[in-house]
Amino acid sequence: MLEKVRNPNIDTSKKVIYIRGLRKAFDENVILKGVDLDLYKGENLVVLGRSGTGKSVLIKIISGLLSADTGEVNVLGQDVCCITRKELDALRLKIGFSFQNSALYDSMTVKENLEFPLVRHSKHMTEQERDKLIDTVLDAVGLRQSINQMPAELSGGQRKRIGIARTLILRPEIMLYDEPTAGLDPITCIEINNLINEVQERFNTSSIIITHDLTCARAVGDRVAMLLDGEFKREGTFDEVFDTNDKRVQAFYNYNFID
Amino acid sequence: MFLELARVYAFIARFWREVFFPPYEFKEIIKQCYEVGVRSLPLISVTGFIIGIVFTNQSRPSLQDFGATSLLPALISVAIIRAIGPLVTAIIASGRVGSSIGAELGSMRVTEQIDAMEVSATNPYKFLVVSRVLATTLMIPALTMYTTLVSLLGGYLNVHQFEQTTIVTFFYQVFDAITFLDIIASSVKSVLFGFTIGMVGCYKGYYSSKGTEGVGKAANTSVVTAMFLLFVEELIVMQVINAIRGI
Fold this sequence. Notes:
heterodimer; A: alpha/beta; six-stranded mixed sheet; four-stranded antiparallel sheet; 9 helices
């Protein structure tokens, strides 16, 4: 299992995401019980945790899809809980969200999927410029040949790549990946892990990667944080997080690596 | 119950807030108009034509009892233009279009495509809901006019077969029997029906949940709810028009 070499370009003096005391409940079920989190510029932060621990809820709150009950969620200097719809939309242009099931628009071709945000947010661009940009991001994910295919014609791994390409097309500063390797075969998982690292290097993004796949966590994470009981109980490098006697953390490790 | 009503109210109010302000999704509106209007034509044509023939045929014996078969064109005209045309078009559209909107938006909701639009700073309500509701509101009246014409043609063929009436005489009697108020009432109803079908389909799809089960439920309840509302609206508009007529 390859461990990622820490990105030397991480700027620890600049926090792009700053979360304090985040709490979120659905009816009586408290999911996040006062989460504190920092994401530094240029950093890949992996958030680990079992299903239902609120990992996806966390990034949905960061992107403004869900609202926090209490706490501060500061993204690129703006508190997403307290900004207007217009400000939130402007902020969202700087955040790329890669969904677990890719969420490609299934009535549109790959090209139309990539054009969709561009047509709305880069109106000054000519059609030639748009086409060039589409080619660039498709090259970045290695799927230029799929430009005219429908999402239904793509494999799971290809859909993930196109989903990532669609988020990259607006050149986001922050990438949020929700279970990027879920449901993929081991080889495709490695390809997606490599792609996440390439995106970080090439586009200088800061990323939060939600996963329960420890191979992915080790391959892409500059830092790892483990969500337990609605809080980040373990945080550090991959080895630091799992160097503990906590039975729940050990069980998580063993589940991934021991049959 | 009250929460649901509040959500329905907010959903409809949002439509009126968003429909007049840019950005306008013209390309999507035209695409949806094609889906709702042009793609419904074959079904509407056959159904409308058959209804015209069947209604005329079923009405004849009653009029024959009074020796009044010459009133058939007038009877067909009033029945089709006032009630059958708008209602049949709306019922067919709610089955074909309403369910399809509910299923499409429901599927987009459960596969997070609506969330994907939102996080890319695109207004999914404007792109998906406003365009579809506008399409049904514009196309159902057009389809209603078409269905009415096709039904009257079906009726004419039946009348011509038994009473040897010419097409000119038939349509002279048809237009002689209706008033301007009938045309206005029919138009208002079909606009209302179109808005209802679009709105119900979009609402059910937009707020669907629980995976594939939710998609099926959204499609199903879109049709059932829309049909129920269509009949309620038909009743209300009929009462209003009768009040205007002084009946």
